[in-house]
Amino acid sequence: MTRYEFLKSMGFTGAALMTLLTSCNKDESGVTPSTSVDFTLDLTASSNASLLTSNGYVISNNVVVARTSAGTYVAATRVCSHEAKAKVIFQSGEFYCPEHSARFSTTGTGLNSYASAGLLTYKTALSGNSLRIYS
Fold it and tell me: For 95-120, how does the pLDDT look when each residue is reduced to its tens digit (9 = 90+)?
């Protein structure tokens, strides 16, 4: 039984479940998710070029950072709440985990049964060519 399955069997759901999962040292894939992040991306760097286009994304510090079709920036943990694997990407305007097709809105709300626990999201702030991602 995985940590996720155990916590679900104990009745934890939603934000409480995500808090417990992200407060643990390591998940099954060896990634240490964090509820506290604070880093900045330079949008002029070639490694971040995909953030200049609609629906482009990068992965940095175990966080998926994306530019929506409306031109705003969103960020979420890479660790999927379904089975605590660091596989989340940004696809078709939403956060998506290809492991079991869990789909999440840009606010972290689950869009199907695999995503019912939601996804931990972070704040973003654009200042010139610097994009800050923080909790």
Answer: 999 999 999 999 999 999 999 999 99
Note whether 112 and 103 are within 8 A (CB): yes
54 vs 26: CA distance, rounded Å: 33
Burial (0-12, 13-18, 19+ Cβ within 10 Å), 128: exposed
Q: Which residue has the tokens 């999962």?
A: 21
The torsion angles phi and psi of 9, rounded to 5 degrees, stand at -65, -25
Strands (DSSP E) contained in 15-120 are 38-42, 57-60, 63-67, 73-77, 89-91, 94-97, 102-104
Confidence at 35, pLDDT banded by 50, 70, 90:
confident
pTM above 0.90, yes or no: no
User: Which of 90, 114, 92 lies closest to 101 in space, CA to CA?
Assistant: 114
Residue whose structure tokens are 């104990």: 10
- Structural domains in the chain, CATH included, are 3-134 (2.102.10.10)
